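Field log, afternoon session.

UNIT: design team B
ACTIVITY: writing a sequence onto a fixed backbone
BACKBONE:
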């Protein structure tokens, strides 16, 4: 039997339009056609999502809510309902997986799909993209924009240009002409600062960048970035769609050589475990919705206590704060503890955590990333927390430590 040729534009990028606001309008139909803002309503609140009616007034995500209200005084302002957005996101993924098993979520409201193997059953990729948009509208009551292209970079670029509520199909034969007039800022990895540096050299469009000697780009951007943007400027992106198979949980625990009844020592050991689990979450690009404390006492009885977070977390500091809160709530008084553990579950892609935490402070997250980078380069001992220096906790060490992943079967 002759194998069917893979279509030249097999990659879809589906991006929901003003996702949070659209979910709110879906359950409040009377808001249809009105400017809707979702975000913090306090003095320092910011916009997490703005309907396109609000965007017509110049409102955008991450804008201070006070300024958004000044620009659009008629807007309906609603606090975020993260549970509702998460449920809607799960329904979207189920719909996408009806089309193809090759689905790679990027955040709550966007995903890549490789439909190269679905053409025989469902038609050409543009037809599949149109069908997805129709199903999302009819079954979920939400608008979506779709890019159809030869690779991931181009598909995401097209979905952005298709907004709102549209579909853009970029044929492989049209890639060079389509990219040429676009600003260099449309390339992944070219942020505002990089774009400004390129502009100082007269490089404003992708066509300008293509015509620039590679050695010049290396001097402007550095070797790695120059290589990346040069490939993207020619529409080249070799990355494949990698289906996300969520881990059920990640945990770590420590058994003490001798029983411990010192709460401060338990808190320090939980910090060590939070650091270990947080690093593994970040390495797996997932974040936890649920944090669990595990204690085994001297008589070998074991208890667990769990807490579900409003915003998924992979930061060491957040994990430690939550698990210590669970410990303190037990009000232990000189109870001897044989084992302590920290578990995480209900994991989501870390992109979802970042999107949900638009209203938060990312200083601890940036500190964690810097520490991870230093450890990756110089070893695990390169960075530690001051409270753990010279810690003499009576533990059995790594040989008895448990740190496990559970993958869905």
């Amino acid at each position: 039997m002759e194998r069917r040729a893979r279509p030249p534009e097999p990659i879809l990028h589906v991006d929901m339009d003003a996702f949070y606001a659209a979910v709110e309008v879906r359950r409040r139909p009377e808001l249809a056609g009105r400017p809707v803002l979702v975000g913090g309503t306090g003095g320092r609140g910011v916009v997490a999502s703005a309907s396109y009616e609000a965007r017509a007034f110049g409102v955008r995500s991450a804008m201070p809510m006070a300024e958004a209200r000044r620009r659009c005084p008629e807007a309906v302002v609603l606090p975020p309902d993260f549970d509702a957005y998460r449920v809607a996101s799960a329904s979207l993924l189920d719909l996408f997986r009806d089309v193809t098993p090759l689905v790679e979520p990027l955040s709550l409201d966007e995903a890549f799909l490789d439909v190269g193997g679905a053409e025989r059953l469902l038609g050409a990729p543009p037809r599949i993209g149109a069908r997805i948009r129709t199903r999302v509208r009819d079954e979920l009551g939400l608008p979506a924009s779709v890019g159809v292209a030869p690779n991931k970079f181009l598909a995401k670029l097209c979905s952005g240009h298709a907004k709102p509520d549209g579909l853009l199909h970029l044929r492989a034969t049209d890639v060079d002409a389509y990219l040429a007039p676009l600003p260099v800022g449309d390339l992944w990895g070219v942020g505002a600062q990089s774009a400004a540096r390129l502009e100082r050299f007269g490089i404003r469009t992708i066509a300008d960048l293509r015509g620039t000697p590679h050695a010049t780009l290396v001097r402007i951007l550095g070797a790695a970035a120059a290589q990346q943007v040069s490939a993207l400027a020619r529409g080249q992106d070799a990355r494949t769609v990698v289906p996300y198979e969520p881990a059920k949980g990640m945990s770590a625990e420590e058994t003490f050589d001798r029983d411990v009844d010192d709460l401060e020592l338990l808190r320090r050991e939980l910090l060590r475990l939070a650091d270990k689990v947080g690093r593994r979450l970040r390495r797996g690009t997932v974040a936890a919705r649920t944090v669990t404390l595990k204690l085994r006492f001297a008589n070998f009885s074991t208890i667990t206590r769990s807490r579900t977070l409003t915003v998924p977390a992979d930061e060491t500091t957040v994990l430690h704060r939550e698990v210590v809160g669970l410990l303190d709530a037990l009000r232990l008084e000189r109870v001897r503890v044989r084992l302590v553990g920290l578990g995480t579950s209900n994991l989501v892609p870390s992109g979802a955590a970042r999107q949900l935490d638009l209203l938060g402070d990312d200083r601890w997250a940036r500190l964690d990333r810097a520490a991870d980078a230093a450890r990756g380069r110089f070893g695990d001992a390169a960075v530690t927390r001051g409270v753990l220096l010279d810690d003499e906790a009576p533990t059995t060490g790594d040989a008895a430590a448990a740190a496990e992943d559970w993958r869905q079967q």
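LOG NOTE: Residues 181 and 205 are 6 Å apart (CA to CA).
NEXT ACTIVITY: expression trials, pending approval
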